[in-house]
What does this fold into?
Amino acid sequence: MEFGPAVNTIATWISGPDPSWWAVGIGLVAVWVIPVLAIVFPVAAVGQIIERKVAAAMQRRHGPNTVGMDGILRLVVRLAFFFLPRAAQDRIQARITALPGVGWTLGLLQRSGLGQLAADGVKMIGKEDIVPAGTDGLVFRAAPYLALVGAFLPFAAIPFAQNLVALEVPVGALYVVAASGFTVVGLLMAGWGSGNKFSLLGGMRAVAQVVSYEIPVGLAIAGVVLWCGTMDLHQIVAHQYNGQWYSFLGWNIFQSPFLALLACLLFFAGLAECQRTPFDMAEAESELVSGFNTEYSGLRWGMFAMAEYSEMILVGALVSTLFLGGYQSPIGEPWIMSLPGWLETIIHAGILLVKFTLGVVLMVWIRWTLPRFRVDQVMRLCWLTLVPLCLLSLFGLALTMLLGGLAGGVHTGPAYGRIPGMQHINLDALGWLVTWVVPVGFAAVLVAVARRRHGQMHPALKQLTGGA
Amino acid sequence: MILAWVNGIYEGVDAFLTGMGTTARFLVENVRGQGGATAVTRQYPQQPAEIVGERVRGHLFNKADICIVCHACDKACPVDCFSMDGERDANNKMRASRFDIDLSKCIYCGLCVRACPTDSLSMTTGFEIDPHTDAGRYLFRRNTGQLDRKLDAPDVVRMAQLANQPRESLSAEDRAWLDSVVDPAGEHLIGMYGLGYFTPEEKAKADAERERKKKEKEAAAAAAKAAKAALEKAAAEKALAAKEAATPAGRPDGGNAP
Amino acid sequence: MVDPGIARPGNDPDEQVLVTTVDEFLAWGKENSLFYLLFATACCGIELMQTGGPRYDVDRLGMIPRATPRQADLMIVAGTITHKMASRVRTLWEQMTEPRWVVSMGSCANSGGPFSKWSYSVLNGVDKYIPVDVYIPGCPPRPEALIDGVMALRERVRKYRTLGMRDRDPHVVQGGDCAFGSHPGRDGACGPSSAAPGALAMSRGDESPRTPQSGKPAQVNGGPA
It folds into this structure.
């Protein structure tokens, strides 16, 4: 099937049984927009506060905790009771705040920093919109939108629930990689269009990094495609369904150590795609002022920030979909599948939200742990570490599939909703154990030998530090 | 070479996990509020400021009643931030009528304090600058070292809490305690002398008063001088008249009677 | 204490209630989310960094440092400004997007500080080149003093009018003198050249020393006092 059933539902609702192309288009956009606006956008916004609070917690301080929602409450009260004098409006606001649950909620919003989000947004909208004189007009203005497009478009192919998926095309994974290429163009346009040497340098570095790290991303996705036999993301999710209450064992990450390794590689390559520390040399504050977004202010810059957090969510959602069962719950998935449609949609979307929020937290955690890589270190890491490891994993995965197929053949897995059962390599418990123990054991031996050979401390240093 | 590569990967992963473990520990301890890595933030201004050491060079304070306006601090200052006027009081002692320190120039070096012969100028440990609230005034007074005893952190917290409430709502005991830690010399020490913390009205009033007194004195001096001059002139005229009367009228050569 | 200079419903017949209410909300947003420019020259810069550090965290007030002036609201001039640096400071200030505020931190930025009397190379106060909103005395001011100055600035930001500007000069910040703002310039705005960005040095020379007028905010804001 080409489009998700929700798309067809909306299209037929608009224009009858044989929907015209524009009705299908409207349906497509609607089904894509709903999870993006309702799920991704809020998490991207809250992600900025998560970042500041987690960073603060790791640095032994408190993050934003003084801004409450009193400004918004005051605006609402003043607008609602505009006919009263100011003193009366203030009294009303005080009374509202004194209500039992309200004060507690407002206090919670203040301490958690979510009030800060409102203040930041209001301030950003009110900033002067500067287009510097030396910029390349259209290029400068269009760049943030392209970055935003590249961050939001790939969500069309990511399944949020059984029926909440816009594109169920047979090339879903490829579509995601291709659509996220818009950000590359956006970055380049921002760097060039700013009319600023340092921005251009930042933009070039960003493009070199993003384009290089598309390779490990593509290879990791290729590994999953090899294992599951399909590029359709919804079918990949269905492939990870094992029909038991312990659904997490069906997830790709537990199937083979090579898949687990590919998951980590996809995560780190995705981190580099988003230009997050340690890979953020494109916007290195101490080196390049602010990289490609130096000349952007106010809402234009807000779009870049939103694009960055949305890309982080995309990477989290991609890793979840490919390796962690997508929107499936780790326990009790068959029970959830038996629930009525609307409830099942909400629960599944919520589970995916939890998974990619954990991914975002992990990215924030990594950002505030590691120092920044140099640009040559970034390139070395990509081409000399990630790519060879990806290729080795692909090779190992293919070997596993070959030997497993020879040993046990294939079987058809359980049907998942409206997706028929897919082919799995037939591995009983012993086979599964072998697929794990052999590569991990081999790797452990290799690491031990390598450590003995190259991991020794220099004798002088050992003497100096007492052999620690 | 491949082994070196493998070793590099292992070391990288090992370092990464060690770092992540440390920050995870900080995160958990900070959120739980217990452990060695809790938040160290001092949430000023909701919490009072840090209690600094005794020899910290904070704001200057001048005890105007013993300042003799000798300009020693003025001469010692490397950036010329003093301006002062003096006038003699009833006992003919020179006292300061205006004493301003330009806080934007002062570098808090303390040379003026060392130069002062009467020890009227002293360096306090105060660095908070919010004297237009009552709480700020109390804390400022405490930090100026004008009190005979040092206050500890719990006392500072208590003072900040009490000072932020209206005075009528405090219990008698609290009121008494607050009064005991307030500068006994009174409010006028802060705001009129020493630190230039005038409100514009007070400054205008003080300036006008000073101008008026100066004009009066000048007028009095001018009148006295005029009176003296008149007296002298009158005396001179009298002397001249007396001299003319003493000498015989007529020609100076002693007379040539016809 | 009602400051007659601040535009308020009932005070200005041209003012509309809706505009004032929305202005208040916008000013609330601007006040609670001041991004400061990552700018430091000398020792005050160290205190500025420490004020952003864990002990005296300004991030809890919503202030985070931004490296580019385009995204910064506030420039805290922390450190000695030499004549060589002065034109760069001016450039940075001009590159800041409005609304923007400047805080002069420390004696060197206020008036040249220890270098004010004899130095040939130090600018006697950054307000000769850019308009300053708040002056913070100290050498260097302690982080608590810097936070005090930021609090005073926030009171000033709270009075910023985005919409209700009708016939007023948008370069003049409406509102009273702040606790530390000294040197009332034209129209009562702090700093000598806030109403005319092109104006430069106002000599202070040997006239009365500039004493920070603290206490109650002065009644300013143009018009007959």
